[in-house]
Predict the structure.
Amino acid sequence: MCRAPCCSYLVHATERFSHIVLIPMHNAALRSVLLQQVPDAIVLEGLSALEPFGLGIGAIEAMPGLVAWSPQHTCLFFVESLRVFDEQRLRAVRLWSHLTKAQRVFVSVLASRSAFALHMGSIAYGTHVWFINEPDRSVFLSDSPEASERYREVQMAVKRC
């Protein structure tokens, strides 16, 4: 979490937990997309929130930008908004979270489909992409490289029209 004095914070409290979560203001749009995609999402922050899932505060570079738990989906969402889940980033977060018994979902949040078109060559297979300007839309890049390549070809063809 950004601790710079210039950062503003939103306060997010959940009914299920009595703790208050501070979310950097630049993550306000991220929070909006998260709650649109996963309405029951609970943002996990701090060691006490991560430990029940077998997660700890490791090397700061290995930790994702945001971690959320969905009781309905019984899975953890690892969300990046300042970078995408490329293969190297995906490996680092998988290693950081390898002790969890929960299902893991890896999500890159981008501003728009245009931003997706710019980054789609580097986004790892087996990950999701959410869009800030279309919070109800998402893309899943299949673990099957062939399926994802076909999808990327279709997306590029549509983008050019």
